[in-house]
């Protein structure tokens, strides 16, 4: 290495450290010969180096957001069996772009147990994280427990304000267990606080007509559904549970009230 090249490397090392972008040094060295051989302009070379740094940062940030979302098991849209649910392929592809998040629209996934609702919800959540949005995932009972704790501690308004800073909240398994009146009111406050501010994805094994029995109050259920579907895409999944394939069982009861169900 010539003294001039050595000095340039030292300057690049210092600048990369000052910018907290150590990958720039690696990209600059790896692309230098390619730039010379292809006759790139200075602008083309600089753009290529910076593009790689931005891509690496986005990938790293997305991974952190995915891990912080609380998915438990990471599922992707690419792994989903759309052959079993062809009717929702087009809607899902459109939602994967993340445009619904910019419009504070909601997504509701309805269908029997085991048809892939949770998989699609997590897959869309992963896409949202990759698009730069903060995401949180929990079951409906998990969200109610969190809000109940905040209410008892006298910090419910602060908790709802904090949650509004998340671009997407996923509520899994609405309808698997009925709510007490206080729990239903807390859930209603969560929905209301995000109305036209930020997006929700909800999964349920019940049609909307059955939500009154879950929340114990038809009026509360109607007001909640009104806010959810006002700006929403509703995807209906059909068929038997994928867990029952090749087991000689075609259907399951549409409501499970005695056991917990962790995958919709």
Relevant terms:
Rossmann fold, disordered C terminus, five-stranded parallel sheet, 264 residues, alpha/beta
User: Which runs of at least 5 residues are low in confidence (pLDDT < 50)?
Assistant: 254-263
- What number of structural domains do the residues give? 2
- Helical proportion, percent range: 40-55%
Main β-sheet: number of strands, strand sense, barrel status? 5 strands, parallel
CATH topology (level 3) name of the largest domain: Rossmann fold
Distance between the termini: 60 Å
Structural class: alpha/beta
CATH superfamily membership of the largest domain: P-loop containing nucleotide triphosphate hydrolases
Global geometry = elongated
- Gyration radius, to the nearest Å? 24 Å
Share of residues in strands: 5-15%
CATH classification class of the largest domain: Alpha Beta
The CATH architecture of the largest domain can be given as: 3-Layer(aba) Sandwich
- Count of helix runs: 11
Order of helices and strands: HHHHHEHEHHEHEHHE
The main sheet orders its strands as 2-3-4-1-5
